[in-house]
C-alpha cells in the first residue's frame, strides 16, 4: 500500500520546504516592481497580436474580498463585511481593462476567463454579471471557451450559479480544505459537510459540468484519522477534480498564520503520511493523480488531456 512506502528522512527534510507555487510561472520571487512600462506595453502588444487570432486570450480577474479570515491562507485578500466595496472595485477593473483594450490592435478573442480570489462569490450575482459583460462587450467569445470561478460553499447561492451558467461558466472550484470540525475551527474555516454537499448539488443542477474541491494536507490538528474521514466524505460527493495541496507555513509572509500554535502542525514525516493516505483513498475510488497535487476522474477534461 502507498502509505507503507519507505520514506528517506534526509530526502524528506531536503524537500519539505516552503517554496513558491509551481502553478505561477515565473514564480513570485522572480516578479519585479521596477517594470519598464514602455517595454512592457510593446511586449504586450506583440504577444497579443501573435496569440489572439490563433489561440485567443485567457483572462484572470482577482476578486480579493472575504468576509472572514481563513488563517491558513497566503493569498492576496482583503477582509471586510462591507459589500459597498464591490462597485468601487469593479470600476477599477473596468478602467484597467480599458487600458489593455487600448493596446490591442484587434478585437480580442476570449478563450478563457477565471475569477479567483479572495472569494469571488463575495460579489453579488448582479455584480458578477456586470463584470463579465464588461469583458465580453465588443469582444469575440471563442466557441470553445472555458469560464471558471472559485466559490465558498457557505455563500455560493443558487442565484450565483444560475447567473454564472447563463454567462457561459461551466467549471467551479470550492474551497473545502478540510471537513474535521476541530481543524475547521483552528483555521477559522467552518463549513459543515451539508453546506458543501448542497453547494455541489446546486452547481450540478445549475449546469456546471466540472466541480473541483480544494483540499489541504498539513493543516494544524490534522491526523491520519481526520484526513481519512475528510477524504471519505469528499468521495461521497464525487467532485470531478480534486486539488490536494500541501499547506505552506509562511507566517512571515502571511500574518494570519501567526494566529495558531506551530506545535499543532504535523511534523514532516506525519505530513507526508497524510498525503499518502489521501492519495491511497482517492486512487481506490477511481481518481487518477495528475501532476504534483491534482486528481481527476476519467471523464474529466484534465484526465483526458493527460
Give a description of the structure:
The protein has 306 residues and is of the alpha/beta class. It has a single domain, classed as pyruvate-formate lyase- activating enzyme (Alpha-Beta Horseshoe), CATH 3.80.30. It has helices spanning 9-15, 37-55, 85-102, 125-136, 158-166, 181-186, 193-206, 224-237, 268-284, 301-305; strands at 57-63, 65-66, 78-79, 109-117, 140-151, 169-177, 210-217, 241-246, 288-290, 294-296. It has an eight-stranded mixed beta sheet with strand order 1-4-5-6-7-8-10-9. The chain has a two-stranded parallel ribbon with strand order 2-3. Helix 3 (85-102) runs parallel beside helix 4 and helix 5 runs parallel beside helix 7 (193-206). It is globular and about 55 Å long. It starts with 8 loop residues before the first helix and ends with a helix. 27% of the residues are buried.
CATH fold node name: pyruvate-formate lyase- activating enzyme
Total strands: 10
- Cα end-to-end separation: 24 Å
Q: Structural class of the secondary structure composition?
A: alpha/beta
Task: Give average pLDDT, whole number.
Answer: 91
Helix-residue proportion? 25-40%
Q: Major β-sheet, in short?
A: 8 strands, mixed
**Number of distinct helices:** 10
The Cα radius of gyration reads: 20 Å
What is the class in the CATH system? Alpha Beta
The number of domains is 1
Amino acid at each position: 500500500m502507498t502509505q507503507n512506502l519507505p520514506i528517506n528522512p534526509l530526502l524528506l527534510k531536503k524537500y519539505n520546504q516552503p517554496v513558491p507555487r509551481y502553478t505561477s510561472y515565473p514564480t513570485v520571487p522572480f516578479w519585479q516592481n521596477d517594470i519598464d512600462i514602455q517595454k512592457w506595453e510593446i511586449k504586450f502588444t506583440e504577444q497579443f497580436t501573435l496569440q489572439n487570432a490563433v489561440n485567443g486570450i485567457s483572462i484572470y480577474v482577482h476578486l480579493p474580498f472575504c468576509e472572514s479570515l481563513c488563517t491558513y491562507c497566503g493569498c492576496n485578500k482583503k477582509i471586510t463585511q462591507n459589500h459597498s466595496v464591490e462597485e468601487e472595485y469593479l470600476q477599477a477593473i473596468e478602467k484597467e481593462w480599458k487600458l489593455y483594450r487600448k493596446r490591442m490592435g484587434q478585437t480580442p478573442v476570449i478563450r478563457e476567463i477565471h475569477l479567483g480570489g479572495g472569494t469571488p462569490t463575495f460579489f453579488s450575482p448582479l455584480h458578477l454579471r456586470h463584470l463579465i459583460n464588461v469583458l465580453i462587450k465588443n469582444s469575440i467569445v471563442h466557441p470553445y471557451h472555458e469560464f471558471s470561478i472559485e466559490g465558498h460553499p457557505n455563500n455560493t447561492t443558487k442565484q450565483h450559479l444560475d447567473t454564472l451558467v447563463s454567462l457561459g461558466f461551466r467549471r467551479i472550484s470550492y474551497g473545502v480544505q478540510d471537513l474535521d470540525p476541530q481543524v475547521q475551527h483552528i483555521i477559522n474555516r467552518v463549513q459543515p459537510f451539508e453546506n458543501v454537499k448542497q453547494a455541489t448539488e446546486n452547481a450540478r443542477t445549475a449546469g456546471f459540468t466540472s466541480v473541483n474541491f480544494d483540499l489541504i494536507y498539513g493543516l494544524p490538528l490534522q491526523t491520519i484519522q481526520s484526513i481519512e474521514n475528510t477524504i471519505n466524505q469528499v468521495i461521497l460527493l464525487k467532485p470531478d477534480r480534486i486539488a490536494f495541496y500541501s499547506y505552506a507555513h509562511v507566517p512571515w509572509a502571511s500574518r494570519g498564520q501567526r494566529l495558531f500554535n506551530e506545535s499543532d502542525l504535523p511534523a514532516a514525516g506525519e505530513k507526508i503520511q497524510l498525503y499518502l493516505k489521501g492519495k491511497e483513498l482517492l486512487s481506490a475510488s477511481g481518481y487518477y493523480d495528475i501532476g504534483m497535487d491534482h486528481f481527476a476522474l476519467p471523464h474529466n477534461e484534465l484526465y483526458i488531456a493527460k
